[in-house]
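input
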Amino acid sequence: MNVDNSARPDLSDGNSEEAAITLQLLTAIDLDSRVTQRSVAERLGIALGLANAYLKRCVRKGFVKVSQIPPRRYAYYLTPQGLSEKTRLTAEYFSNSLRFFRNARTEYATLLKGLAGRQARRVAFCGVGELSEIATLCARDVGIEVVGVLDLGGASSVRNQVGHPVVSDLRALGSFDAILITDFVDAYAALEKLTAVLPADCIFAPPMLGLSSRPAPSTSEQ
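output
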């Protein structure tokens, strides 16, 4: 199973990141008009200079109004235009989230139906998070048993996900017919680590992860 780096999804889309930071900034100001640039930076997990740049941009676009309050402090208020922009960005965020979950469910369902058609009975997932939760639901729909979730980095504090054990050692999963990659953050690292110790024909990943692998198993295969 080869990695096609040209197909790798761009998880750092500039427009998406800008929209996310702007939404968080407008939300912070809406909740507390006396927030400081430093507290905004800490809340958003960005550098102070970047928080200042985004705040100035919001003021320039008419989303935020600034008033000076003693002693040498500032209060920030959302303008009607800012409230409208916050509403728009919130709706856009949820729309994108719903689209992501629908796509994930469709693609994992297709993979698992194909595996069920090949008489696979036990599968494992590699990657802790929303994708493994979605894949678990899809596995239940086709009667496939999930033996557990592999956390290759071992950094997750989660030890159980949707009723299945989370382990850092592949051997702890026991026997399984296939393993599906459910690591959205670093799917390529997961693929490389799995192919180093497992046959390529038992490793599967949905198209949304942008990995170059053999086609999903057909439901007509026996």
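quick obs: Residues 1-14, 218-222 have pLDDT under 50 and may be disordered.
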